[in-house]
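Note to self: user wants both folds in one dump. Writing first protein now.
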Amino acid sequence: DAPKVPDSRGDSDGPRRGSLSDRHCAAINNVQGDLGELGCHLHRPRVPPATSTPSCCQQHSEEVCESCVVKTTLTAENAVEANKLSNNYKFGFKKWKSHVTARPWEDRSEIVKELYSDLNIVRGSGGSTLTCGNVLYLLLFGWWLSLLYVLVAAVMFITIMGAPYGELCWDLAGYFLWPFGKVIQKVEVPKSHQACEAGVGESSALLGGPTALRWRPRCWVGTGYWHRASTAVWLCLGYPVLALAHGLVCVTAWLLIVLIPVAKLSARAASRVLLLPPERVLIRCLRMTEAPLEGEVILCCYRAANPYYYKYAVDGINVFAVNLLPLVLVTLVLGYVDSPNHLTGSAVKFTLALLSIMPLSYYIGMAIASISAQSNFAVGAVVNATFGSITELTFYITALIKGSREGNRCYAEVVKSALTGTLVGCVLFVPGLCMVIGGIRHQEQRFNSRSAGVSSALLFLSVGGVFAPTLFSKVYGKLVCGECHNVTQNPLGHYLCHNCHFDLMDNNGTLYYSHVQPLVYTVSILLPAAYLIGLFFTLKTHTHIYDIHISDCHMPGHHHSAVVHWSRWRALVILLLSTLCMSACADLATEHISPILTNSTISQYFIGVTVLAMVPELPEIVNGIQFALQNNLSLSIEIGNCIAVQVCMLQIPILVLFTIFYPTNFTLVFSDLHVYASMFSVVLMNYIFMDGKCDYFQGTVLVMVYFILLAVYFFAPSPSGC
């Protein structure tokens, strides 16, 4: 307990009140480790309503802190981050795990601090350097990089004038063969050595300096480094080759992510070590009892690999998204320059275009979260509603346009399969996978069943509305079969028919144009209206169902000034550029999907519900897994529910509206398989989420059901028109 401080008002209950307040705030600050990493979420048992007040943590009092315990408490480093965390719990807002502001250095864990540290820190004892990562460095880079330095050293010795650099390269050959536990220093030359030009100073080990390591003319120390003849020889013959080699090592190690320390090592060697005068470079092998020489430490590396570099970020952007960004440029250049497919085929271009959607989805999500966190509620709601589904809509619209131009109905069927696949995957696979992975760390996870119930109700409504025209056509449509055979050879006997479907265009399309199409337009108006009502209900009139409170208790390390990674204007520019690139990649994907649909032996249903549906959602799946690992399953569930609701209430009505202005083959009539799979998934999801708690077994059930549905789609025949 914190010490009891008497109340300055002289109240007899002052000491008790102050102590209780401090105890509650300390409990909030210390529950479940680092609350700042997630923004911290707590689920506390409720106290009687009479003991809580609407305000929370504005001053330290018993009533205030008891109110903190009632609600889910979020803690953040600054106001922008608090706004982002609050938006995560709002219906209709994109759930985003990564920080949109720079975290205070003192709040970072030691593991993360090591990721961002420069390779110039000398530790007293680094342990054994014989590790798997270091051996991997030796096999991938060390041996040939060392051999290259030996060859360059030989060339420098042959030129005679470059002999000092030859000796430096010889020493660096041994260093880069196994750089671990060694240090490269920039030596400050004593003044006595600089008198060599006047003939009064001589170098020796007693006077300091690395004379004992290698021979070098000390009289060059005082002369201009860039005016030496040896420097010109080095920059022409030695440095370009080594810089190119280090650049290759740097790029390769960076792409492997876990070897980013090797990338830092090569980058610093090319930019610092190789551009120093050779007499200023000292290479030593550190020992546990040996103190380093005085001077600037340039390089000191102990480990070549670090598995935690998946957390590494550049200007707030995860390293995976950074590494995949060049893939977008390669895809666009290869797709539009090599139109006749001379360099690569359609399958390669389709795969590249699909993979390019993943980093673009990440940048769009990061931009939306940044803008929403720095703006008011209205701007955030508009941005999320406008760009929240832009990834999927760009692909669907370009596919429908291509199908309309070619007169191919298969594209419309693929779009319907992708819509159904997104719905089923976000209802079953996303929450199920989060439950399984989160259940490995937490035996039982709880979530806000009331907020999940709102999303579930909207999901029931949206699924019923989307499939209403399909059910209507089943009741009033005319069943038409392509081929029938009499099984019993009796005219009144049984017939076996193939390729049967409900024809809506009978009698010049009277049923479709007079009944089905008006129903489709009515549903397309009612679903967005229901979405707006859901937003108004959860964000204005019934905000208390989310039980969210941004704590204002004074905590060490928090309440720093916000240093945003992306300003609003920068985020807006990135959002627009990412959207344009997304449109281009979607155009390339639809352009080169036709050979895959026609030549593949796999059902087009399966291609739509798996690849086209789930690849754009991979960033959302990663966010959901991260939330589940930190025991915040509420957000993991909301991620899947919100995407499914947006598919039915926003994406499908937008596609229907698009067909009004640009006629396509898209009609809001789905196959029986899509209807049954979607409805069964929604019912099962609501059954699992009724009690507000779950474990890895329930998550396994959802994932297994999802894979069973995928097997059904895999063995299903291709849709009509394909």
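First done. Writing the second protein, which came from a different request thread.
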Amino acid sequence: MSLQMVSSVSNSSLLQPGFSLLNFDGHVYFFGQKGWPKRSCPTGVFLLDIKQNELKMKPAVFSKDSCYLPPLRYPAICTYRDNTESDYHQYIIHGGKTPNNDLSDKIYIMSLVSKSSRKSMFKCIEKDLAGDVPEARYGHTINVVQSRGKSMSVIFGGRSYVPLEQRTTEKWNSVVDCLPSVFLVDFEFGCCTSYILPELQDGLSFHVSVARNDTIYILGGHSLQNNIRAPSLYKLKVDLPLGSPAVTCTILPGGISVSSAVVTQTSDTEFVLVGGYQSENQKRLVCNTLILEDNKIEIVERESPLWTPDIKHCRMWFGCDMGKGSILLGIPGDNKQMISDANYFYILRCREAEEDEEEELTAQTCSQTSTEDPGDSTPFEDSEEFCFSAEANSFDVDDTYNEDDEEDESETGYWITCSAHCNVDINTWVPFYSTELNKPAMILCSSGDGHWVHAQCMDLSETMLLRLSEANIKYFCNEHIDLNKGLQTPKKVGQLKKQPMKPLRKKKAIKLTSVKKSFLRRLFE
């Protein structure tokens, strides 16, 4: 095992605990950034590229028929193949935290549509499920099992917020262990079924799960209820006959007390387990080999690398599988760095030198799941770990994402909902006017304090748009044009010619005077 330091990582502020990595065709993509996506990469998905020992991030796009995929942290992710012999695969993404700290209960299927030297395009669809749908959660696992020519996904563990009726002001965002139920998800028919197994008594999160054929091995994990990392090892076996599925659980001896460990596959039947925590304040520096064959698992300790003093003495560490027997590890940077949330990164190679030479020209990949074994998933613990990966192949075109070039678009960005009938979607937008390139054309409405609207949503022709941009006149959007007309000052109307009043006749005036005198005389008599 060899350890090598990565000298430079750009835009490290996006790489925070809980993000995920997706491996498509030997290229690794980052998903689940810190905060909401910005203008330079509205999808929040980036290609990770390592060149000359420096990591760079390049934005990716979604197809027109994609749904919106928010940046989710701590989701459960695994690969899914319709055909076990096919290299084409998709990713299943379930749960996770949004930038607002809301928990998601949605499930997405993400696939690569096209790949060129300058752009990667994805398609993402949201899958509707019925039956025993798992509640919103994070820090759980999802695996794919195959039995009798059929395949299903298995969801287990994780954490969720305290039920709404039990929340208090002081502990509004408190989390609890999810019930230790096992969920079978059939994507062909879109249905879920939950199973309560007597062997699973306590909820677990940030555990290790490795899937092979019809069997899943669940190792370690952290229980919030008991605040322990028990040396547990469970074997879940899923049988998929023509009728109802059957799920059994067996408690095996020889488990490991660990949470948030990283697993990488070194051969068809061997995995290497690295990192994690054996207690709240103690890292686990021991490495193990997991051997899966003949429907059993064997866990043996193996020689650890020469950890650097920085790794040995740091309070926390994190990492993710890079594929091909490599793992990327990270530790927090010191306070002397200009960027407060910067980290140091290392690449740990678990394969022998001869085996690494054979893979020298092959892209190094990583994901939250093992690329050789569909369904293997390893989440990471709160505020401690995040997945990270890199790959050796890179592009010559320098279109690297630079966060310093971003502007604050929370109020005046190009991807706002400009009106009730706004049809501009950050994931599906394509240029409409000849003057557009990578942003929709906008025009300022002069109503009130002014606000920006998309020219396309206002049904403006390109000729009219150019005329308005060149002329020094005020523009009012479709929703305020009628209001503006109503508030206009009425036009000046000429004064009406008044007819002079005719003078009273003298006779009538005398008559009125005599009446008054007669009335007064009677009043005082």
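Dump finished. Worth passing along: The radius of gyration is 34 Å.
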